[in-house]
């Protein structure tokens, strides 16, 4: 069996070379096979080296922290975590006098916990806002039960910026690597100043109306009123049956331009029925959870010279979305209602 002290020297060597603990685990397994130090041991030694203790000798036996994963130690860790869930394994080990590897096993195997970063959400919702989200979702579900054609009558839409350069997300730029291969790196980048705003409306069958906002124009109530007039004309031409029946429904969010008095008066005078949308709820808006992310998937990470090139490629991406994807979007919308209800109105995407 390989000498553990020899392996500790190897761990120190990797640490000094700037290798990560995960890379070191892979290299030890490659060199020592089944005799390699365990992952928790390697991480414990890395933690010790980071604290400035560069010795590869075992800590003195007298007064050594407890290594037992017993009920008493599990209770100690649980109490410490309940006091402050941001405590690190190093802090917990020092506070409870339990070894680093034991704390790690108690957290992951005994308490079934994992360390996660806080999730950014559009807003920290109040009780009334969560209740409103649940009520809207329940109303939608009742409408579908009473009218199976309900979703087929909805035209939904929103606005979104399209950029000359939009960096890839961290997930999109991820790639597979072996334990010994270096981790890929890239410089931090920001969106370009070249941009144009797209307004797009769609239904279960596909795009109904799309247009770019002219440069320098803000989407205020006057402009949005003109957009709605053009949308009505597109519905008349592209969804003639819905137009004749006069039973199509409009869904948009609660942006100021969408809810202005002038806009509401126009909708009422033209018998345009609005499908309610709870405030601060992009996870319940098809444009936000489907259309724009799907459209921008092929645009991120690419550079376009000017606004005209941005528009050209945006339209290509938009037109590449298949009819069945729109149908799937409306099926997902129903699942989002269920998730929102089950989460008692809290945000649920990414959990």
Keywords for this entry:
five-stranded mixed beta sheet; 9% strand; 3 domains; 351 residues; Nucleotidyltransferase, domain 5; 14 helices
Give your account of this protein's structure.
- With 351 residues, this protein is an alpha/beta fold.
- Helices cover 48% and strands 9% of the residues.
- Helix 2 packs across helix 3 (39-50).
- The radius of gyration is 28 Å and the shape is elongated.
What portion of residues belong to β-strands?
A: 5-15%
Order of strands across the widest beta sheet? 3-2-1-4-5
Number of domains: 3
Number of helices: 14
Biggest sheet descriptor: 5 strands, mixed
Shape: elongated
Tell me the CATH architecture of the largest domain. 2-Layer Sandwich
Report, as a whole number of angstroms, the end-to-end distance: 43 Å
- Which blocks of ≥5 consecutive residues have pLDDT under 50? none
CATH fold naming of the largest domain: Nucleotidyltransferase, domain 5
Rounded to an integer in angstroms, the radius of gyration calculated over CA atoms is: 28 Å
CATH homologous superfamily heading of the largest domain: Ribonuclease H-like superfamily/Ribonuclease H
Domain Mos1 transposase HTH: 8-53
Protein name: Mariner Mos1 transposase
InterPro entries: Mos1_HTH, RNaseH_sf, Transposase-MT_Hybrid, Transposase_1
Region (Disordered): 166-189
């Amino acid at each position: 069996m390989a000498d553990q002290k020899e392996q500790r020297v190897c761990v120190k060597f990797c640490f000094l070379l700037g290798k990560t603990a995960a890379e070191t685990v892979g290299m030890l397994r490659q060199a020592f096979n089944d005799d390699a130090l365990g992952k928790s041991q390697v991480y414990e030694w890395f933690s010790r080296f980071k604290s400035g203790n560069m010795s590869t000798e075992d800590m003195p036996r007298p007064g050594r922290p407890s290594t037992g994963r017993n009920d008493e130690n599990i209770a100690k860790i649980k109490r410490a975590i309940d006091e402050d869930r941001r405590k690190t394994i190093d802090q917990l080990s020092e506070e409870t006098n339990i070894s680093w590897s034991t704390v790690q096993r108690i957290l992951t195997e005994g308490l079934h916990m994992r360390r996660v970063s806080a999730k950014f959400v559009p807003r920290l919702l109040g009780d009334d806002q969560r209740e409103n989200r649940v009520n809207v979702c329940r109303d939608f579900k009742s409408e579908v039960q009473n009218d199976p054609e309900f979703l087929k009558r909805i035209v939904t839409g929103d606005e979104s910026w399209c950029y000359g350069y939009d960096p890839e997300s961290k997930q999109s730029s991820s790639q597979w690597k072996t334990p010994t291969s270096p981790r890929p790196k890239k410089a931090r980048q920001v969106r370009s100043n070249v941009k144009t705003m797209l307004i797009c409306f769609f239904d279960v069958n596909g795009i109904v109306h799309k247009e770019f906002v002219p440069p320098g124009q803000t989407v205020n109530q006057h402009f949005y009123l003109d957009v709605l007039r053009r949308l009505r004309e597109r519905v008349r031409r592209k969804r003639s049956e819905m137009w004749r029946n006069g039973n199509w429904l409009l869904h948009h969010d609660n942006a100021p331009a969408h809810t202005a008095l002038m806009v509401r008066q126009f909708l009422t005078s033209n018998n345009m029925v609005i499908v309610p949308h709870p405030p601060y709820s992009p996870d319940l808006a098809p444009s936000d959870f489907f259309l724009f992310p799907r459209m921008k998937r092929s645009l991120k990470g690419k550079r376009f010279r000017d606004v005209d090139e941005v528009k050209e490629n945006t339209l290509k991406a938009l037109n590449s979305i298949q009819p069945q994807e729109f149908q799937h979007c409306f099926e997902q919308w129903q699942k989002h209602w269920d998730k929102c209800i089950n989460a008692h109105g809290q945000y649920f995407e990414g959990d």
